[in-house]
Amino acid sequence: MKHTLTLFATLLLTPLAALHAADLPLSTAGKTEFCIVKPANPSPVDDYAVTKLSEYLRQITGAEFPVMDADKATGDSPCLYVGVSAAVSEKLGAEPLKELKDQEHVSRSKGGDIFLYGKGMHGNLYAVVDFMEHTLGRRWYSGRLITETPIWHHTVGTPVFAVARDLVVKPFSRTGGFSFAYRIPSYDWMFDFHLQNGMNLFSNPGLQPNVFSRHVMPVNCHTLFGYIPPTPALQAWPKVFDWVAKKDYFATHPEYFSMTKAGRRVALHQQLCFSNPELRQELTRNVLEHIRRLKADGQERLMIDVSANDDPSEFCFCPGCQALKEKYHSPGGPLYDYLFELCALVKDRHPDTLLHTLAYRLSQSQKPPVIPAGMVFPENLVVQYANVEDNVDVDWTHPLNQTSYQDLLAWGKLTRHLWSWYYTTGMLDRMVKDIRLMKAAGVEGVFVEFTGWTYNSAIDFSELQIFVYNKLLQDVDADVPALVREFTDYQYGPAAEGARTYLREMEAAWLASSTNRSLSAGRGIGRRLTGVPPETMCRWQDAFDRMETLAADNTRVHQNVRRLRRGLDYRTLAEWNTLAKARPAYFKDYLQVQKRLGAPPIFMVQQLADWELAIKTAGIEKPLPPPFDAMDSALVQRFVPVRGQGNPKMVLDPDAAFGYGAVVNLPDRPLTFGFYQDDTRTHGAKRAVDASDVPRGEYRLYPLGEITVTPNCRIWLSGSWETKLELGERLYRPPSPDNDNRYEVHVSLKFNPPIPPTPAEIAANDRRSLDTNAPYSVLCDQIIFVRKPPATRSSEATRRAPD
After folding, report:
1. Residue 768 above 50 pLDDT?
2. Which end is more exposed in the chain, N or C (fewer Cβ atoms within 10 Å of the end residue's Cβ)?
C-alpha cells in the first residue's frame, strides 16, 4: 500500500534544476546508476537489510537497484555500500567501526557514494533504516493495518512514503544509537515493523530468534513448573518443555513444593521449596539439560529464564525457606539463594549463556536481596523488574508508586543487567515519564506489555503509544509532543487537532480515576477508565461527530477517526443506562452506536451481548422480598454481582430481581460464598450451600451474616472468586457516629439444571466456558445489604433499656 507523503517530499527531494555538484541523484525518470553493495561475509540480518533497502528504493523510484557482492563491486558507478568491505575501508579509512559502540550506526555520503554501516549483529540494518527514514522520508506509524472493522489484529501494516521517480538527496552524515541496549517488541507477530524500529529481542520460534534476536530466549517468564511440573495438567509452557520426562513430581516428591502456613505441601497456586537440596539438584539438572538441547539444535546466545510462577503466594513457609528469607532480608530469599548457586554453575559450564529471572510481586521477589558479606551478585543473571503491583494510573513520581521506583533504583545498584517489564493502560504521559525514569535507574532492557482489550483491538491511542514507545527506546529524550503531532497529523488529517484534544482530555480522565482503587475498576493491565461524567461522554461524542465530518472526504483518515471512536463507543454501551438516565435526549438509541461499531472482534462479542442485555433489562426491578420490603428503604440496598472469567456473564431470567441473573463461575460443591477485605487481606463471613438440599429452579435468599465494609472489599461466590461484587465504591462511607459500615448480607441464588453454551460460545470455542464452566448451574440475581446501627449506639441503647 502506497501513500503520498508530501511532508517529507518537500524537505528531502531536490529538483533537478537546482542540483549542486555534491548532490546525489539516486534516480532519474525511474532509472538509476547506483548499485547496492553487500558487506564482506554478510550475515542473515545483513541480507535482510539489503533486501529491504532494494525493495524500498524500487517502490519509491520505480528503478531496479542491482545488488552486488562486495568482491564484485568495481567502483565504476556510484554505490550504496551496506556494511564494511575492503572497498569501504579504502574509501573511508582502515577501520570505519573502530570508534563505534555496539549497536551504533552511521549513514553518510562521501563523494558520489553512500555508506550505511554499524556495529553489532543489527548495526548495518539500523544504518539502512536510518537512511530510509531520515534521508528518504519513509515513515512507519503502525505495525498493523488499521481499518474501520478489523479482523482481530493480525493484519500487517506497511510503511508510508512519497513516490519520486526523480530522486536527489543532499549530502548527509549521521551517527545513531539506542538509549536501551535490549528492546523487546510489544507483539512478536509485527516482525518487520518491530525489527526495523530497532527491536532486538524476539522469542517467537517462528521468527528465527537464532538469526534475528540478540539473545535466544525460549520462554521469558514463569518457568518453574515447566522444569518441575507437579502434574501433567499444571506443567507450564508444555510445548517448550515437552522434553521433560517426568510430569508428576508432586506425586512422588511433594517435598519439592511449597509448604503452607498450616504445614501442608501443595502444588496448585504455589511455588517450589528452594531450601530442599534434592529439589535444587533436580531443577539444576533440568535447566542444564535444556541448555544442552538448545545448543545441540544450533541455538546460540542463550538466555534461560528461571522465575516464579504467576501466582501471588509466598514461596514457601517451611523453616528452611523462612531462614533464607531472613538471610537476604527479602521474601525472594529462597529463589535468590538458588539462583546464585545456579549462576555459578552455568558460568563455569556455559560461559556464553545468561540466566534471567523476574523481580515480581512484593510477596515474592520484587524487593532486592541484601547480599551477605563476601558474596557478589552474579554477572550472568538478568533481573527483569515487573511493576505488576503499581497503580497504573500514575507514574513513579507519585506517592502511590514511589516505593516501587525505589525498589527499581535499588536493583540498579545491585545488578549490571537490569531490565523492566512494564505494565501500561491508556496513559501516554505516564509511560513516557516512567521510561525516562527507567533510564535514570540504569535499566538496559525494556518490555512494555501492551495487552488488554484496548491494545488487542487497536482502539483509543494504543497505536500512538506503541509508536512513541519504539521511538523512546531509540532516543529516550525524543520530542514526544512532536511525535504525537506527526502521528496524529498523518492518522487523522483535518481531524488531528480534535484527536489531540481528545488525547489530552483522556489523559486527564485517567489521572482523575486514579483515586478509584476498587477491584471493579480493574488491576494492572486490566485497569479500566472509570468515573467519566455523562456530560464529558456527551461532549466527546459531539466532538467525534465533527471529526468524522472533517475526515469524510478521505477514506483512510475517516476509518482512523472511526477507529479512534470505538473505545468511546464501547464505554458508551457499557455505561448506557447511567448515561441515558443523565442525558435522555442524547443517549436515546443504543442501536446507532452498535451500528457504528460494526462487526466486533471475536473477543468482544460476548461483552457486547452482556451490555445489550443490561440495556434491555433497564427499568426492570421487582419489589424487595419480605421482610426487607417493610424496612426503612434508606437502610436497604441491593446489587447484582459480576462474572469475570468465562461466558456468558449473565442470562435473561424473568424470575430475577432485575430481569437477569449473573452466572456463578465454576460453582463448587457445596457452593461456597463469602466476604473478603482486600485492603486488609482479611476473610470475613463465609457460607456453604449444598445444592442437593435446596429446590432447583427458584431463587432463594441465603443469609451470609454480618460484614464490615472497607474501601476495597468484595462478596465472592464459589472457589474461583471470579463472580463477585465489589463493595467499597458502592457502600463504604467514612466512619461517623451514625455509621460504622456494618451490614447484614443476604445472597439470592438459583440452582438450575444445566444451561447449554450459547451459539457465540460455540463459535468462539471459549475454553473457559465450554470445558470448565459447563454446566451453568447457579445464578445470582441480587445481594441484599441491610445497614446496621453503629455498635457503640446499639450497646448504649441496650444499657439504657428499662428492665
Report:
1. no
2. C
